[in-house]
Amino acid sequence: MLVLVAPGQGAQTPGFLTPWLELPGAADRIAVWSDAIGLDLAHYGTKADADEIRDTAVAQPLLVAAGLLSASALRDALGDSRDDFAPGALAGHSVGEITAAAFAGVLDEAAALRLVRTRGLAMAEAAAVTETGMSALLGGDPEVSIAHLKKLGLTPANVNGAGQIVAAGTKEQLAALDADKPEGVRKVVALKVAGAFHTHHMAPAVAKLEEAAKALAPMDPKVPYVSNRDGAVVTAGDEVVARLVGQVANPVRWDLCMETFKQLGATAIIEVCPGGTLVGLAKRALPGVKTLALKTPDDLEAARTLIAESAGAPAPAADASDAADAAGSPSA
After folding, report:
1. Global confidence as pTM
2. Among 90, 143, 231, 328, which one is most buried in terms of CB atoms within 10 A?
């Protein structure tokens, strides 16, 4: 059973969208999306530097657009079998949950991009009130680490599994963590994000998202949708949206999402662009599950094969245009 996942903020790197825009129709889709949300996605995905795309208001729409674009390219790459393709489950990490909601048919692409634009702006505004940030703790016992973080006034904002917890709080609290790591933690790594996401610092953003959600007309997921709140499979569209709104100020439990993948019988995981982070966690937490990250269009052929294997069938043959598109795509 294949699980399709979408990464969260921090996965972006300068120029990561460049090779995807070489695919037929991709630049036009990005241009339409850019006009719809008032943000030049092509510029930020190809020419902007690391500081520019670190901006929450930029990073979040950029990540969702990249996820939607690469997932569409994956579906197109399946050729004649594209209409029969459906993953066994979907999930996204943090802002990637909006990408996953679009994959699941809860939101259409335009609605997903409008929502993430509102989310990014609201979270950037909330983050500007107090100087805050996030740091990843590598190694250690989760219970020991979480107790230590609470003692320092920090929030375990992402419990990612595979020996990784992300702490969030003020710069002073994070400095105290650097000076006093929990017992057993090998390393504390500051993340390239501009706020203490998934904490009480984001409460003002929740109110703005609640207002924006009133304009949505969500559909029930067409594919099992696994929620960051508790790893539960959510079957109602209204509940998916409610969780998307509330999750902004609550911890991400990716560890529980991966446990659900295991219980559902996952045999393979594909992470859409800019993939890498989530399959890295899966390699450590879900041994035996095959993984693949879509970094550039060059990865589409391997993804086609993995999808076919997960379905227990031979890889579908590409038509001539599919083969030409894959061969002509530049590397990252």
Report:
1. 0.90
2. 90
